[in-house]
Amino acid sequence: MKNAINWFSIPVADYDRAKAFYESVFAFTMMDVEMGLQKMAFFPVEGEGVGGALNLSSNFSPLDNDEVTVYLNAEDLEGSLARIEAAGGTVLLGKTEISPEFGYFGLMLDSEGNKIGLHSNHG
Fold this sequence. Notes:
This protein has two helices and eight strands; from the N terminus they run βαββββαβββ. By secondary structure, it is α/β, with parallel strands linked by helices. The chain has a four-stranded mixed β-sheet, with helices on one face. A four-stranded mixed β-sheet has the order 5-8-7-6, covered by helices on one side. Helix 1 runs antiparallel to helix 2 (77-84).
């Protein structure tokens, strides 16, 4: 097994708002794809990296519990955390060291109310 995660899907209620939020926080551009009744915005991936998407579908809704279901790679963790509130989200936990071997993480509520983790191996 190469990765513990091979795909993730983040449910959204407002597609345009959620896409603008993630593009602003991580300073990248997402690709729009429509698959049947689903509208998805794909996170950029290099090589054989783990992929995922924002997903607008009648089959999915933003989570309403306290469980973190995904940790997204944030190479610039401090920069990403600094952009969250201006993009319409909430920082729940600032940059926190896990250990020297495992790096740092932070927690946020995205524009849709999903509790999402951010992770970086770097200081």
